[in-house]
């Protein structure tokens, strides 16, 4: 959430940001916000004046009653009218506060100066050139669906029977390979990158979604359990970031780094017409998430660190990939700057997104009220929050199966996973 003081003092910057994000239609809401904010401040001033008058006259009434000099009835009646006016103003203030908060929650984050301007994913910039590994795929290739069916390690048909399309089933060595990936990534982040492992709940309340920016803007993407008033998490970012909601952290605690596994659930509303075969677009998938809480001045170094941590996984697995810097028209509403890591699918002959690494600056911390006391200062400040997929296994699995296939139709297991799988070949 943006700071209302920043918006009030820099409305032109906010308008420019909305235009860069291709959300110029929200400028009308910005005008409404500023109007409500002005009305609120004027009303607070009038209310404060009336409260001061009431306090003064109440003392006068007390003196009259104590001394018995004259009648206080007129003043008492006048103060009843003042009290009614204050009550009416408080009611209006409550309505204005709700409207202001609603608009603030809908506005996207500021953009970092490095974010290139663009309309869509087509305008994202290549931040790092493709990293390749020689898998010698000099034979007719099978895609991950054909490989999974042939080897009996994936079953999308039974997943559809059980739950619906977009809910995969891993079987046999496929299930063990998936579990191996998750364990390897968690261990690697813990042992090599210094993350503290967290195993969070997979269902959260509305306050948690609000804190990370999924509510209310992306409510249509989230599965909801009406009777319990709980939501299935779209990513571990939600519960892990909210670990410190409404907390005052100590300066010496920062930075805090967490790594968490979770299943992720997304309705994927609006995906009509997109390629939904196999793992290309699913409603449930597994992911290891990295989350950081930092001092503001350290957050962009932390973003590069998270990116490198995610890349280290792919380098260890020897999965070809590239890194994109997202443009203003494709970046998420909450992020100030974001990198996407895309893995190479030789059968699809294209890159597939497997990780996003984002700096939210104080946007999430302001929504979730996560602050710290800077060393040498008595004034609290909001932390900066960051996260990165480290990584999502669905499209990573696509790339792994296709890049490690052999001419015989078997799958070699990446060397770093063999201690976790207990086998080196899927056949």
Tally of structural domains:
2
Q: Report the uncertain regions.
A: none
Principal-axis shape: elongated
Q: Beta-strand level of the residues, as a percent range?
A: 15-25%
CATH superfamily of the largest domain: Bira Bifunctional Protein, Domain 2
**Could you say what the CATH architecture of the largest domain is?**
2-Layer Sandwich
Share of helix among residues?
40-55%
Written description of the protein model:
The strands form 4 sheets. Strands 1-9-10-11-14-8-7-2 form an 8-stranded mixed sheet. A 3-stranded antiparallel sheet has the order 3-5-4. The protein is an alpha+beta fold. Helix 3 runs antiparallel to helix 4. The protein contains 13 helices and 16 strands. The model has no long low-confidence stretch (mean pLDDT 95).
């Amino acid at each position: 959430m943006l700071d209302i003081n920043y918006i009030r003092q820099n409305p032109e910057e906010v308008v420019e940001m909305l235009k860069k994000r291709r959300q110029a239609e929200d400028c009308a809401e910005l005008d409404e916000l500023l109007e409500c904010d002005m009305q609120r401040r004027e009303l607070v001033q009038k209310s404060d004046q009336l409260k001061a008058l009431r306090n003064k006259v109440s003392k006068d009434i007390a003196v009259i009653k104590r001394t018995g000099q004259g009648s206080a009835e007129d003043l008492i009646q006048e103060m009843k009218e003042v009290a009614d006016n204050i009550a009416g103003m408080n009611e209006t203030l409550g309505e204005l506060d709700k409207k202001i908060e609603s608009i603030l929650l809908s506005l996207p984050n500021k953009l970092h100066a490095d974010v290139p301007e663009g309309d869509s994913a087509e305008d994202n910039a290549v931040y790092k050139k493709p990293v390749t590994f020689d898998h010698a795929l000099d034979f007719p290739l099978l895609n991950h669906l054909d490989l999974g069916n042939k080897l009996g390690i994936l079953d999308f048909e039974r997943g559809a029977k059980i739950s619906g399309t977009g809910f995969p089933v891993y079987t046999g060595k496929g299930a063990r390979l998936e579990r191996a990936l998750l364990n390897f990534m968690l261990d690697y982040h813990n042992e090599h990158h210094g993350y503290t492992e967290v195993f969070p709940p997979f269902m959260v309340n509305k306050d948690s979604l609000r804190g990370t920016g999924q509510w209310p803007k992306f409510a249509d993407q989230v599965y909801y359990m009406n009777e319990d008033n709980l939501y299935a998490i779209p990513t571990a970012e939600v519960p892990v970031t909210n670990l410190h909601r409404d907390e005052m952290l100590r300066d010496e605690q920062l930075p805090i780094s967490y790594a968490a596994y979770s299943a992720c659930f997304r309705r994927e509303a609006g995906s009509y017409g997109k390629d939904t075969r196999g793992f290309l677009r699913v409603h449930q998938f597994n992911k290891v998430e990295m989350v950081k809480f930092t001092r503001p001045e350290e957050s962009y170094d932390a973003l590069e660190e998270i990116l490198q941590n995610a890349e280290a996984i792919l380098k260890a697995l020897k999965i070809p990939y590239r890194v994109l810097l997202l443009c203003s028209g494709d970046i998420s509403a909450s992020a100030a700057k974001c990198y996407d890591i895309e893995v190479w699918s030789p059968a699809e002959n294209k890159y597939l997104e497997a990780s996003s690494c984002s700096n939210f600056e104080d946007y999430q911390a302001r929504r979730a009220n996560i602050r710290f006391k800077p060393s040498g200062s008595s004034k609290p400040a909001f932390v900066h929050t960051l996260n990165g997929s480290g990584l999502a296994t669905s499209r990573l699995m696509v790339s792994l199966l296709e890049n490690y296939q052999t001419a015989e139709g078997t799958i070699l297991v990446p060397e770093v996973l063999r201690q976790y799988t207990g086998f080196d070949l899927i056949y």
